[in-house]
Amino acid sequence: MVNNRVCCSPETGAVFPLLQVDGLVTAFDTEKGCVNAVDGASFSMAPGTTLGIVGESGCGKSVTALSIMGLLPRPSGRIVSGHIVFDGKDLPTLSPKEMQAIRGRRMSMIFQEPMTALNPVQRIGSQINEIYAIHFPGMTKKQRTRGAVTMLSQVGIAEPSMVMNNYPHQLSGGMRQRVMIAMALASSPDILIADEPTTALDVTVQAQILELIKELQGKMGMSVMLITHDLGVIAENCDDAVVMYGGRVVERAGVKDLFKNPFHPYTKGLISSIPGLAEKPKSLLPTIKGRVPSLDKMPLGCRFSNRCPHVMDICHTTPPPETLVGVSRGHFASCYLPGESRD
Amino acid sequence: MTDSRKHDQANGAVETSLDSGNILSVSGLTKHFPVRGGIFLGQTGVVHAVDDVSFSIKKGETLGLVGESGCGKTTLGRCVMGLYPPTAGKVFLHGKNMALENSRQMKSMRLQMQMIFQDPFESLNARHTVGEILREKYIIHGKKRVGTDQEIKTLLERVGLSGDDIHRFPHEFSGGQRQRIGIARAISLNPRVVICDEPVSALDVSVQSQILNLMVTLQREMGLTYLFISHDLAVVKHVSDRIAVMYLGKIVEFTTARALYKHPYHPYTRALLSAIPLPDPLARKQRIILKGEVPSPETPPPGCRFHTRCPHVMDICSTKEPKLKPLKVQGSPHLTACHLYF
Ligand SMILES: Nc1ncnc2c1ncn2[C@@H]1O[C@H](COP(=O)(O)OP(=O)(O)O)[C@@H](O)[C@H]1O
Ligand SMILES: Nc1ncnc2c1ncn2[C@@H]1O[C@H](COP(=O)(O)OP(=O)(O)O)[C@@H](O)[C@H]1O
Ligand code: SF4
Ligand SMILES: [Mg+2]
Ligand SMILES: [Mg+2]
């Protein structure tokens, strides 16, 4: 399997982003009216890198991923505006058929609960076989089986032939996650979107799975979008990170920069409210007051304004532009607080 | 297992229940669940959920109990609460064997122990208002007097809710607020010991820190003693004075929070610590990736239960069970169950 990626400009050698999301707004029709679950999200992914998307539950991480994959529930969900440019194409403008050629082939997604993606009444082997059949119609049955065995052993399954004959429920949570990764990577995609892939797993198994994704990324050269609520997972596994709050990207930066020099009050609050291993037992943790409002009750201006310790008048009335503050190169925050430097 | 062996292990493990500073002691606690199957639903096996666990907790102390899912934490908590009859072993409250007390004494002793659950919603009656839930609590425990509205409002404010919330239903609250109601319910009768089973595991970090702070504050104000159960070692480390690490129904390491973090001895504790993702991209740490997953508690591995995944496994580990014994170290007692050290 060969990937033809044209990511580098032959003249300048500059790296183009593999995926660029620009001003994404995704809305749902609900009983309470139409709400923007994602309300302005921009970021890009360079080839071969890992981009983390972090934020607390309900902040729009999964909806962002589903928007990119063209998997929004219909008819309630739709992309209202914005661009998702992949391989020179603006994905929201593609026909369902064109999108199908990309989804699962060039971009794959794995989920927190593998059972949602696996067919419970079909053997693992036949499910992987099907993926090859869809994306590589030229393959013979024998090639497909060989491919499936190779893929399963690549994800660290010791007895692939046996697992091929298993049904999903016969496997442990960690094994199911491995199978799902094998299925997602069978087509050798350019991008793997992993939506909370380890949230349901024990911490020692989480460590195994994250290590596996890293290893396969190195081998196959894909980019990974790692969605998680866990800042620790971001710090240890990502090159760049996007922090979301209430459907908006509030900060984005290289990971080292983000943790060393967080700018947005939400990012700061989030980082400091994690119980650390080194501090004194039973000390009081810094907190962010209140909680995330529901989508229909979001504040008008900055969506964090009702919880922000630094809130100013303008914060209540006008949403700050996504990249209002340029903290440093590639580091932006959406906040009215004065930045140290703007470029 | 003979009684004398169990007793030995219990003594080796912790100060006994006679120590007056201890409010709660558990000795040789074991809980096996029968596994039924086959056509006649006969017993086909047994789940070794908790096996020969001993510890005691001092007044005002927080004992953290940490381990991955299925290692027996909830079962242990429920046995201590008296919600499950233990297969073997004893639970002492104020030095009194809970099983030997007559039922009236036991009832009043039970009131001194309360529990907080992971999912407060499941444990709250959805059709009752918060006021009814908290008032109901007073009645269930046979207290002569029903909680007054004023008492309940004060209680709500104490846990960071508003007095007006008394008329609202559980579904009108967020996860964090529901946990506050769960806490209000647990402290309403002024308990001595609170068993907290994954109290913040379902919450987002910013809410988690609020609830942890509330629990720490209430402990200080009310002199509460906590048995704090969680799969999250970072959280346990934050709230606990001492920590017991469990693996497949057994305590494998037991010492102060500080010592556990600074000098973990058991290979499982080390792996668990190294697996916690740290929110610091520059942190350099030794990463230990364990092989495989936790084996089934129906067929725990012989010898050391961790030997199938242990990076330091030796011949003896698969045949002889390592006992939980004190290491010869300076400072606070530090117990571990591993052949590497004895
Ligand atoms: N199918 C849907 N219909 C209506 N609202 C939805 C739907 N899916 C998600 N949402 C809402 O969109 C917001 C973002 O959800 P999501 O992206 O799943 O958050 P998370 O960051 O936890 O992945 C939430 O408020 C959620 O309730
Ligand atoms: N009521 C029960 N009947 C049978 N098995 C049980 C019961 N409760 C728990 N178990 C089993 O006992 C073991 C320990 O479970 P539990 O105490 O819930 O672990 P933890 O709380 O550490 O995740 C698991 O294997 C679980 O399946
Ligand atoms: S007793 Fe053996 S197998 Fe068990 S933890 Fe120690 S070294 Fe590892
Ligand atoms: Mg999600
Ligand atoms: Mg449990």
Automatic annotation (TrEMBL), chain A:
Keyword Transport set for record: yes
Domain ABC transporter as annotated: residue spans: 19-271
PROSITE patterns: ABC_TRANSPORTER_1 (PS00211), ABC_TRANSPORTER_2 (PS50893)
Single GO MF descriptor: ATP hydrolysis activity
InterPro entries, per database record: AAA+_ATPase, ABC_Ni/Peptide_Import, ABC_transporter-like_ATP-bd, ABC_transporter-like_CS, Oligopep_ABC_C, P-loop_NTPase
Any GO CC annotation of this UniProt entry: plasma membrane
One matching Pfam family: oligo_HPY
Family: Belongs to the ABC transporter superfamily.
Record-given protein name: Peptide/nickel transport system ATP-binding protein
Species name: Desulfocicer vacuolatum DSM 3385
TrEMBL record, chain B:
GO BP annotations, alphabetical order: peptide transport; transmembrane transport
Entry's Gene Ontology molecular function annotations: ATP binding; ATP hydrolysis activity
Matching Gene3D superfamilies: P-loop containing nucleotide triphosphate hydrolases
SUPFAM superfamilies documented for this protein: P-loop containing nucleoside triphosphate hydrolases
Keywords: ATP-binding, Nucleotide-binding, Transport
Segments forming domain ABC transporter: 24-273
InterPro entries registered for this protein in UniProt: AAA+_ATPase, ABC_transp_ATP-bind, ABC_transporter-like_ATP-bd, ABC_transporter-like_CS, Oligopep_ABC_C, P-loop_NTPase
Keyword Oxidoreductase: no
Family: Belongs to the ABC transporter superfamily.
Protein name: Peptide/nickel transport system ATP-binding protein/oligopeptide transport system ATP-binding protein
Lineage per the UniProt record: Bacteria, Pseudomonadati, Thermodesulfobacteriota, Desulfobacteria, Desulfobacterales
